[in-house]
């Protein structure tokens, strides 16, 4: 199998400091957490930003700029910004893409609408197409975020806007999306391969207690993985993780034990055709 690409998602937009007192909030904190994870083996950072005063998830271009500058000053980490962050918090559609002109190499492209917990996550076809066009305009590779199998099929509508290899992110275990089971992971992978070919790349993002078991299966199946406080704040049952790096370190250790090498940021760029 090719080398494993690990993404870290340091903060997200929904986790709170009430849940995790050491959650990174400011641009410097988010960058420092990402850089720790980079040293532990993460090649990609998936960035959300927060209001430094309230801690609430926001889509603020200047906060993205500051965070990205800190990370780039100290690493060659691949930057992947969110275009979904804040959608369930009421950010308007075009406000979701304020980071694209800052030169991230990748950005998330959510490929379908859904219930997201108690909120609605709106991603209608015309918005998906608009975001895909904007990413192509700015030379940003879309990470195709799919929360259920129907979202995978939606990608057929924008294939003319996408460069190969396609890169999917299977987000599993969200309340309102596909349950995080091994059987469903295999269905997601097989659906992607059937529709888009076996050269298509994919990673798993599993929520909460599902993170480690599904990431382990992704490692075994030849996929990539994402870990971090956006998705999970626990290291084990009842024990909160000390850092994003700790979650990365565990997956590096497991991958090494089963003989799957870890891709550096530069190797990941080659694998992703960035």
CATH topology: TIM Barrel
Strand order of the biggest β-sheet: 1-2-5-6-9-10-11-12
Distance between the termini: 20 Å
User: Order of SSEs, N→C?
Assistant: EHEEEHEEEEHEHEHEHEEEHH
Architecture, according to CATH? Alpha-Beta Barrel
- Averaged pLDDT: 97
Helices and strands, with pairings:
Blueprint: E1 6-8, H1 27-40, E2 44-47, E3 49-50, E4 57-58, H2 61-74, E5 78-81, E6 106-110, E7 114-116, E8 119-121, H3 125-138, E9 141-146, H4 149-154, E10 167-172, H5 182-196, E11 201-206, H6 211-221, E12 224-227, E13 234-236, E14 239-240, H7 244-257, H8 265-272
Parallel strand pairs: 1-2, 1-12, 2-5, 5-6, 6-9, 9-10, 10-11, 11-12
Antiparallel strand pairs: 3-4, 7-8, 13-14
Helix pairs in contact: 1-2, 1-7
Task: Report on this structure.
It is a single chain. Helices cover 35% and strands 19% of the residues. It is an alpha/beta fold. Helix 1 (27-40) packs parallel to helix 2 (61-74) and helix 1 (27-40) packs parallel to helix 7 (244-257). The mean pLDDT is 97.
